[in-house]
Write a structure and sequence with these properties.
This protein is of the alpha/beta class. The longest helix is centred in the N-terminal third of the chain and has 18 residues, at 31-48.
Length: 499
C-alpha cells in the first residue's frame, strides 16, 4: 500500500497493509491503520472547515499521529500549519493571530496550550466513522501548507506552498533521489522545518516506513543509534551539523548499521571533512547534497557526492537544478559565474501570508515566472552550482570586506581542531570585531593551540581578517532545526560565559 499524492488516494489496498508505516515516539501504526486514521480524521476536519480558505494547525512533536494529521489535511484539501510543542506560547499566539485558524489537531496526550482555547481542538480519538471522503480542490492552485520561519522583525513569517509546488518536488524526488519502497526513512527534523517533508512525502508515496525521532531521543546517542538499527533505517536525511555530532561515535558505521545505504543533506553547507568522515565509516554509502530555501519547496538542487569530488575541490557542490527550475545569478563582482542566486519556477512559494509588501519585494515575477531572491551566494561551473555562503556572511570591518567562511575554513583545517566558526560581533548594523569559536581535540591544550592558530592565521590571511578573539569551547549550540546557533554563541560571549 502507498499514498498517491496526485490522486490523493491510498493505492494497492490490502497489499502489505500490515507493514509498519509510521514508527512514532509513542508507538507504531501499520499501513491499514494509517489509511483508516487518515480517512477518519479527514471526515472530522470537513465538519469544522467549511471554506477553502480555512487553515488548520497541527500541534505536537514526533508522535505517530503527526504524519496522520498532515496526510489527512492533504487528503481533504485543507491548508495546514505545523507547530511544535517546544515552541513558546508567544510564538504559538503569533502564528494563530496570523492564520486565524479554525481548528488545531492535537497529536499529543496533553491539553493544547491556552492560546488555542477558542478554536476547535481535534485529537486522535473521535466517533466519526471512516467514509474515505475527499474534498475537491477549490478553484485554482490551493495552498497545501504554510511553514513559519524566523523573521527579521522577530515575528515569524508564513511561507505559503501551493499543492502544485509540493507535487513537483515529490515527482522529482521519486525519480532522481534513488529511494526505494523497501527503504526505512530516519526522520529527525522537526515538522516545522521542511527538511522533514522530504522523508515524509517520499516514504508515504513509496509505501515505505517512516521512523520518527524526538529531540530527547536524539540527545542519547547510544539509544538513538540503537533505535535506527532496530528499525533497519536505510535513509538518513538531516542537516550536516546533525550528522557531524555522530561521526565519532563507535557504533556510527556500516558494521553496526548495515542497512544504512543513503544519506541526503539539506539546510546547510556540507563540509568536505564531513563527507570524508562518512565515506570512512560507510564505504558504500550513497551520499547526496541538496540545497533550497523553504520559499522554494524543500530543495531546488541535488547531486550525488563522490570521494573524487571532495578530493578535487575544497567545496562540496550543491548540485543541478530540478527539472523546470531556472536559477539566475545576479552578478556582484567581476566573475559573471558568481553572485546572488534567484530561483524561478512553479515550485517557488506563493509568498508570505498576510505580508504583501514583503512578498512583492522577495518574490518578483520575471518573464511570467515566480522568483525568489535567496540572499545566497553561489558559483556555477557548467551546470553544477556551488554554495559560497550568505550575502550577509560577508561583512565589512574597518572598510575591508571579509568572508567569514574563509576564516572558519583556515581554523578548521588545523589537525588538532574538530570544528571552528567565525562570527561577527555587531553594534547595530556595524561590525565591531570578529570572534572565532573553536572546538579543540583536547580542551587542556588550548594555550598551546591558540599560539599555533594565531601563527597560522597570520600566514594564511591578511591582517584585517584575523579574529580579535579565539574562544575555545567544548561544543556548539544548535537551534531546533539542528543548525549552528551563532546568535546564541555571541550572547554567551557577551555574557562572559566563556571566560
Amino acid at each position: 500500500m502507498h499514498y498517491d499524492f496526485e490522486a490523493r488516494q491510498f493505492m494497492d489496498a490490502g497489499t502489505a497493509s500490515g507493514k509498519c508505516a509510521i514508527a512514532g515516539t509513542d508507538g507504531d501504526i501499520n499501513w491499514q491503520e494509517l489509511a483508516d486514521a487518515v480517512h477518519k480524521l479527514s471526515d472530522r476536519l470537513l465538519t469544522v472547515c467549511h471554506s477553502p480558505e480555512d487553515i488548520v494547525l497541527i500541534y505536537g512533536h514526533k508522535e505517530k499521529y503527526y504524519p496522520v494529521a498532515i496526510l489527512a489535511c492533504i487528503h481533504s484539501g485543507i491548508t495546514y500549519v505545523p507547530l511544535d510543542k517546544i515552541y513558546p506560547e508567544s510564538r504559538l499566539q503569533s502564528v494563530l493571530n496570523q492564520t486565524k485558524a479554525c481548528a488545531v489537531i492535537n497529536c499529543t496526550t496533553e491539553q493544547v496550550p491556552g492560546v488555542f482555547s477558542h478554536i476547535a481542538s481535534i485529537g486522535p480519538d473521535h466517533p466519526t466513522e471512516p467514509t474515505a471522503a475527499v474534498r475537491h480542490d477549490p478553484a485554482g492552485d490551493p495552498v497545501q501548507y504554510i511553514m513559519f520561519t524566523s523573521g527579521t522583525t522577530g515575528e515569524p513569517k508564513g511561507v505559503m506552498i501551493r499543492r502544485s509546488s509540493a507535487l513537483l518536488f515529490i515527482r522529482w524526488a521519486l525519480r532522481d533521489f534513488g529511494f526505494m519502497a523497501s527503504d526505512v526513512f530516519m526522520n529527525q527534523a522537526p515538522f516545522t522545518f521542511d527538511v522533514s517533508l522530504c522523508d515524509l512525502f517520499c516514504s508515504l508515496a513509496l509505501g515505505s516506513t517512516l521512523v520518527l525521532n524526538s529531540a530527547s531521543q536524539m540527545k542519547e546517542q547510544d539509544a538513538f543509534i540503537e533505535r535506527i538499527r532496530k528499525y533497519g533505517c536505510s535513509v538518513w536525511t538531516s542537516t550536516p551539523s546533525f550528522v557531524y555530532l555522530f561521526l565519532r561515535h563507535p557504533s556510527f558505521n556500516a558494521e553496526h548499521l548495515p542497512r544504512m545505504r543513503s544519506m541526503l543533506f539539506i539546510g546547510e553547507e556540507l563540509p568536505t571533512r564531513t563527507c570524508a568522515g562518512l565515506f570512512s565509516s560507510f564505504p558504500e554509502m550513497h551520499l547526496a547534497n541538496a540545497y533550497g530555501p523553504t520559499e522554494a519547496t524543500i530543495v531546488t538542487t541535488h547531486i550525488f557526492i563522490t570521494e573524487a569530488m571532495i578530493r578535487s575541490s575544497p567545496n562540496v557542490p550543491i548540485g543541478r537544478a530540478m527539472p523546470g527550475a531556472q536559477l539566475l545569478i545576479q552578478k556582484t563582482g567581476e566573475d559573471p559565474a558568481e553572485g546572488e542566486l534567484l530561483i524561478c519556477g512553479n515550485h517557488v512559494s506563493a509568498g508570505y501570508l498576510g505580508k504583501p509588501e514583503l512578498s512583492g519585494e522577495k518574490f518578483p515575477v520575471l518573464s511570467g515566472s515566480r522568483c525568489y531572491i535567496t540572499g545566497d551566494m553561489v558559483r556555477k561551473e557548467d551546470d553544477i552550482y556551488y554554495f559560497l555562503g550568505r550575502n550577509d556572511n560577508q561583512v565589512k570591518l574597518n572598510g575591508y570586506r571579509i568572508e567569514l567562511d574563509e576564516i572558519s575554513t583556515v581554523l578548521a583545517n588545523h589537525p588538532r581542531v574538530i570544528d571552528a566558526v567565525a562570527v561577527p560581533l555587531k553594534q547595530g548594523n556595524n561590525v565591531r570585531k570578529i570572534i572565532a569559536f573553536i572546538i579543540p581535540e583536547d580542551v587542556n591544550d588550548a594555550a598551546g593551540l591558540q599560539a599555533e592558530l594565531r601563527e597560522k592565521l597570520q600566514h594564511k590571511l591578511p591582517y584585517y581578517m584575523i579574529p580579535s578573539d579565539l574562544v575555545f569551547i567544548c561544543k556548539f549550540p544548535y537551534n531546533t532545526s539542528h543548525k549552528l546557533d551563532k546568535k546564541l554563541l555571541i550572547e554567551r560571549f557577551i555574557n562572559g560565559e566563556f571566560n
